[in-house]
Design goal:
Length: about 325
């Protein structure tokens, strides 16, 4: 009776690895001047250092409305989502995914460096970093405008090329609360109103279509057109109050338009509770880009499910592969 011999696992792995390496690379090793193939980092041999199939900014709300238990649910839920079976498969199926994180309240700050995910070990290391991340921005208001602009700047100035998908993931339980910007926008709107022109505002905020109401105003002294003494003017109706009430939405429109112009997609997880039952609609109307989406969570206890589903949806699209056919993930041709 013939005896069956089990092939050692290590030997099987070596044969598999060797079969995946082009013969030209093996030939290089046979010469004294040939390059050494590192089987633990084979992707880097084929991908440019600046290439990422997806650039992702995790934008985390750490405002005063978020108590410590909710913050813990946010970071633990994000870490667990990154390591969930489906999200892990989708990320590792990509040639490279580059991730960073930002915390925001009244101010915004990058809290993890850009990390390039090539292998499972990279993803596990980054998820562990997220899971142990302390609050690095002081509790304050909910300045979504500042958070989004910081995230946009990070992608715009990242060391990676812009040929892949670029995404900002914002998580929050409240609406934008910055008042200072509102008054700034009132000032910007007031000036074209006083001048009776549209050109000034268009120059200040490119790509934004503003139509100034046509009103008759007297000539008035100004500091090179940069300031006005409101006591010297009589404005009919409640124009300025209307501007003030609409300014928060206008500020969000500006930052969303900036993201769209750079090819960046903004998606959101809206945490719904008794104080913000309409937050999903607010995110949809004011925050996400035209190609973005909102994933609602029914309280922070539901956040882990929502962030996992959102990451799955973002990673599902196939960005193509630059790797040789025999080294590509299962979803690449």
């Amino acid at each position: 009776m013939a005896r069956l011999h089990a092939r050692p696992i290590a030997a099987s792995f070596c044969l598999l690895a060797a079969s995946l390496i082009p013969t030209s690379a093996i030939a290089d090793q046979s010469t004294n001047q040939g390059r050494q193939i590192d089987l633990s980092d084979w992707k880097s041999q084929y991908l440019e250092e600046t290439y990422c199939a997806v650039q992702l900014v995790l934008l985390m709300d750490v405002s005063r409305s978020m108590v410590d238990t909710e913050y813990d649910l946010q970071i633990q839920g994000t870490a667990n989502a990154l390591l969930s079976k489906r999200v892990k498969e989708l990320i590792l199926d990509k040639d490279a995914v580059c991730i960073t994180a930002v915390q925001f309240s009244d101010t915004a700050q990058q809290v993890t460096p850009w990390t390039r995910i090539l292998y499972e070990r990279d993803l596990e290391t980054y998820a562990a970093q997220i899971a142990s991340l302390p609050r690095m921005v002081e509790r304050g208001g909910t300045d979504i405008y500042e958070g989004l602009n910081t995230a946009i700047d990070l992608i715009a100035n990242s060391p990676y090329d812009k040929t892949g998908k670029m995404v900002i993931d914002i998580t929050g339980d409240g609406k934008d609360s910055n008042i200072r910007k509102t008054e700034t926008l009132v000032s910007l709107y007031a000036q074209p109103l006083m001048q009776g022109t549209k050109e000034y505002f268009s120059d200040q905020i490119p790509s934004f279509n503003f139509r100034a109401p046509q009103i008759n105003v007297p000539n008035a002294p100004s500091d090179n057109g940069s300031s006005f003494d409101w006591d010297d003017f009589e404005i009919e109706g409640d124009i300025i109050e209307n501007i003030r009430s609409s300014a928060p939405k206008l500020s969000m429109d500006m930052v969303t338009k900036r993201a769209e112009n750079l090819g960046i997609q903004i998606n959101g997880v809206a945490i719904l509770d008794m104080d913000t039952p309409d937050l999903e609609g607010y995110y949809r109307d004011n925050i996400i880009t035209y190609n973005g989406f909102v994933m609602p969570a029914k309280g922070w206890e539901d956040f882990a499910r929502a962030i996992q589903k959102k990451l799955e949806r973002e990673m599902i699209a196939n960005a193509g592969s630059k790797l040789p056919t025999q080294l590509r993930g299962p979803n690449h041709g």
